[in-house]
Amino acid sequence: MLLLKLQARWCSFMMAGVLVLTAAAGCGGPDGPELFEVKGNVTYEGTPVETGRITFRKKDSDQKAYSAEITAGAYTMQCEAGPCSVEITASRIIPGKFDTSNPDDEPQPVGEMYIPAKYNSKTQLLADVAPSGENTVDFALTEK
User: Fold this and answer.
1) Pairing of strands 139-141, 35-44
2) What pLDDT is recorded for position 20?
3) Is 15 a member of any domain?
4) Mean pLDDT over residues 40-51, rounded?
5) 90 touches 50 (CB < 8 A)
């Protein structure tokens, strides 16, 4: 009986050790790429984009993406240095328009993506994140 208790304790001890080693092996360290702060303002037709998202996508082979929220026309994010394509999206509620397709639900406000595709899915925007100094990148978007 004593032998069984010792074996159970030994087994528990070994399992705990394996779990600790596995967790430690999975922890990331400072091996990732160095990131730099990028900040700026985004306007559409001269008005700050109230809420939206901005994504910097690396132009190299791995095309890593770094993203941040746009709030009151401003954003701040961390990104690798180098050239990036930039995608900007934003949506808003259409005043006075409601979805009434489900008769069991209250009418729901209808939204729209109002930033043109040339700034997101078909972006032509570019930014170059510098490895030193301040990275302020502003975007003044227009319909045309």
Assistant:
1) parallel
2) 41
3) no
4) 98
5) yes
Alpha-carbon distance of 131 to 121, in angstroms, equals 27
- What gap in Å lies between CA 88 and CA 70, rounded to an integer? 9
Tell whether 49 is covered by a domain: yes
The residue segments making up the domain with residue 132 are 35-141
87 contacts 122 by C-beta, under 8 angstroms: no
- DSSP code of 133? S
Label residue 61 exposed, middle or buried (CB < 10 Å: 0-12, 13-18, 19+).
exposed
Instruction: Identify which of 22, 25, 24 has the alpha carbon closest to the alpha carbon of residue 14.
Output: 22
What is the token pair recorded at 72?
């009151």
Number of domains in the chain: 1
Residue 84: CB atoms within 10 Å? 25
**Eight-class DSSP state of 61:** T
Radius of gyration of the chain (CA): 25
- List own/partner pairs for 101-110 with CB under 8 A and 24 or more apart: none
Query: Which pTM was predicted?
Result: 0.73
